[in-house]
Amino acid sequence: MNKDNIVEILKAYNIPYALTGKNVSKGYIGLNCPFCGDDDNFHLGINPEKNFFACWRNNEHRGNIVKLFMEVLGFTEKEVKLLLSSYDFSVDFSDKICYNKEKVVGKSSIEDCRHIAVATINKADVLVSWNFKHIVNLNRIRSYNSVNLKNGYSILEIRSPKELIKNGN
């Protein structure tokens, strides 16, 4: 996984991280180890090239990026894989969910896929968008929801702002 994508996910979920510092090796991303419980000095290093993490304080706290995000975000394995697939995560998961892979949209619409995946994972009631080409489009809505259902997720209501505004209000 690309370093920028990992940082983007950490920012999106307000998870403190460091790119430099005494406990952060070059090319790594430093996190407070969620497994130690009392770490506030970024003792956990994420190696984005190998999709691997390890804690410098406790050698048992190590594993792949999916395990880490399950712990940090409190998501299930399936939810983490959906989130990572929305970033076009390249680790080979046989059950990888990816709207691009299912040809709902093309590679140029990866940001749109991220919106759909995050809303799906977080069980949003409704996703509201002005993007009529890639999101608020009946054929695409059906395709996004087909992928979601195929992978055990709920149908996501996708609407335009006009549909949510009541006359006179």
Walk me through this protein's architecture.
This protein has 169 residues and is α+β, with helices and mostly antiparallel strands. It has 2 domains: 71 residues; 74 residues, no CATH class. Helix content is 34%, strand content 13%. The protein has 6 helices and 7 strands; from the N terminus they run αβββββαααβαβα. The strands form 2 sheets. Strands 1-2-3-4-5 form a 5-stranded antiparallel β-sheet. A two-stranded parallel sheet has the order 6-7. Helix 2 packs across helix 3 and helix 3 packs antiparallel against helix 4. It is elongated. About 4% of the residues have low confidence.
Describe this structure in a few short sentences.
The protein is 34% helix and 13% strand.
Observed structural traits:
13% strand, alpha+beta, five-stranded antiparallel sheet, two-stranded parallel ribbon, 169 residues, 2 domains, single chain, 6 helices
List the helices and strands and how they pair.
Elements: H1 3-12, E1 17-18, E2 29-31, E3 44-47, E4 52-55, E5 62-64, H2 65-73, H3 77-86, H4 110-121, E6 126-128, H5 138-150, E7 157-159, H6 161-164
Parallel strand pairs: 6-7
Antiparallel strand pairs: 1-2, 2-3, 3-4, 4-5
